[in-house]
Amino acid sequence: KVGQPSTALLAEAPTLPLIQELLEEAPGKQQRKPQVQGHPMRYMLELYQRSADAHGHPRENRTIGATMVRLVRPLANVARTLRGPRHIQTLGFPLRPNWMAYQLIRATMVYHHHFHLAGFHLSCHVEPWVQKNPSNHFPSSGRGSSKPSLLSKSWTEMDITQHVQQRLWNHKGHRVLRLRFICQQQKGSEGLELPWHDMSSLDTAFLLLYFNDTHKSVQKAKLLPRGLEEFKKKDSSLLLQRAR
Amino acid sequence: RAAIIASKIPGPAQEHVGSESNQCSLHHFQVSFHQLGWDHWIIAPNLYTPNYCKGACPRVLHYGLNSPNHAIIQNLVNELVDQNVPQPSCVPYKYAPISILLVEANGSILYKEYKDMIAQSCTCR
């Protein structure tokens, strides 16, 4: 139907898998593309370029090990700035465990381990946020240690798969993963008042969720009845020849 | 009666005369996500090549068309039994996936591989 906006077309055929997903994931036309710039966008563009070529063909040697990677930005960070050299941000990440369609295979926190803010040199790390007794370590996850692995010179990726799967993934409804992002002023810059409030606006940390589709691909064609199977094997050219 | 048909069907040499150009085959086709009205949420790639299959399905379905036996039967039925049964159609046979980078309504950024998005070969069935 010429001229109809594509979302209207999509709505008419919601049964097809892709259409259904597009309806779920695609913000409506009236909704301009949510402005996501800065570090998160740059990080995902780099991940995309490592995983697919300029035409969108997935690279044979891609290493993400998943068919879908979602970068989740913190809802709103509640900064609780302690006096002096420490700064703690409590970050909340909304999880939408659409576990029916996707299997969570990895969850990581990506953040700046070291960076400069207003001339101060900061060293940061991430801890689980627990209501009562904040514990300051992640359970060591099965896949390699949860010790942060330095990605490129600036990003650190810490595996928190077990933490997410244990606490949140198998619960229904929307859940919020809470973590603490703690930064410490490095030696030599104490004493001066650090503009910590600038921190909350920075994209200093985000969550990466790696999924595989659980969609069973089109059911493998049932085995042909024995007779026809034999026929196909031995005399498959017979029919072709006879017709010819 | 199959022999009668066989005699009418032009030999392989004649088969290729003239009708080759409109035989079922893969046609290259590229679109932008802007043309599909999806550029407000798809970041990459800019261009996408779904391709398509078009052309007549010959009465003699040569090997290159990857046709199942059913297509041969359907041709015979159309020829011998009931012309209301259509001849087989020219449709994609093999597909390839593409990776898409998109922004979701809640501001999350998604890398996703969608299966069966590019037609790579055609068949009559």
Structural commentary:
The complex is a heterodimer of chains A (244) and B (125). Chain A is α+β, with helices and mostly antiparallel strands. Helix content of chain A is 25%, strand content 29%. Chain A has 6 helices and 10 strands, in the order αααββββββββαβαβα. In chain A, the strands form 2 sheets. In chain A, strands 1-10-4-8-7 form a 5-stranded antiparallel sheet, with helices on one face. Chain A has a 5-stranded antiparallel sheet with strand order 2-3-9-6-5. The two termini of chain A are 42 Å apart. Chain B has 125 residues and is α+β, with helices and mostly antiparallel strands. Chain B has helices spanning 2-8, 12-15, 69-81, and strands spanning 25-27, 31-32, 42-44, 47-48, 52-54, 90-103, 109-124. A 3-stranded antiparallel sheet of chain B has the order 3-6-7, with no helix packed on it. In chain B, strands 1-5 form a two-stranded antiparallel sheet. Chain B has a two-stranded antiparallel ribbon with strand order 2-4. At the A-B interface, helix 2, helix 3, strand 1 and helix 6 of A face strand 4, helix 3, strand 6 and strand 7 of B.
